[in-house]
Amino acid sequence: MKTLLIMTACTLALGAAACTPNERPVARAALDCPEKHEGLTRVSVAGDRKSCTYRSNRGDEVVLQLLPTQGDPRAALQGLEAQLVPASTTAPLASPDENAQAASEDARKAAEEASADAAAAVDAGDGPEEVHVGVGGIGVHVKEGADGAQDKADIRLPGIHINAQGDRADINVAGVQINADGEDATVRMFRNVRLKGEAFSREKRGVRATYVRTGENLPGGARTIGYEAGGPATGPLTVAVIRAREGEHDGGDDLFKAVQDLVRRNGGV
Q: Which residue ranges are recorded for the region named Disordered (predicted)?
């Protein structure tokens, strides 16, 4: 599970930095909803074309919609999360500035911990193995659990923080936040990005966000619920809401790739 989560974080981090074509962005008044798109088939479209629904051959549902932001895209997306998973205890989306401050604080703490760990003595014996590594602000602490105990890992790098204990893990990689507990996991990413046609602009006027919640007891019997969003911060955002009946199933990567393409096609990011 933790390996999959780390790979997901890296994929999101790389995807957020990808280049975009040189096309001038236009605020969407209606969606471009192709009849078929990479394994998805359109089953309905609103008369005003502000929403349309797709299904995959596995029964996954994708609802593409325009979401007004009222000038606050983060708040608009938090409201959407509350609608998708009402019973969840969702942490607020961190702003890019907060992510940068967290990375700086993690680096500072790592330096302090690494210094303390370097000075600590390692007791020899038959107990669980414990390893401390600290070099230039990079801190790694791995402890192998004794019989019946859970393994622990705490990794702090500039911009990267991983804390794991048994099946529980909290991961922050380049602003991608992942919280996992066994088969239940939540992935969040929120970034300010440049819009299409503004690759050389100093101002990032666009927003890209991802939210994925997997596990049991989700609304409607789904195993995965989430969204991919993108568009101008002033709105409207193009949002693809995903409801998948299965969790880690074959073809899941294809589903999310198709969804991301639809959002980029309409959102202009």
A: 89-128
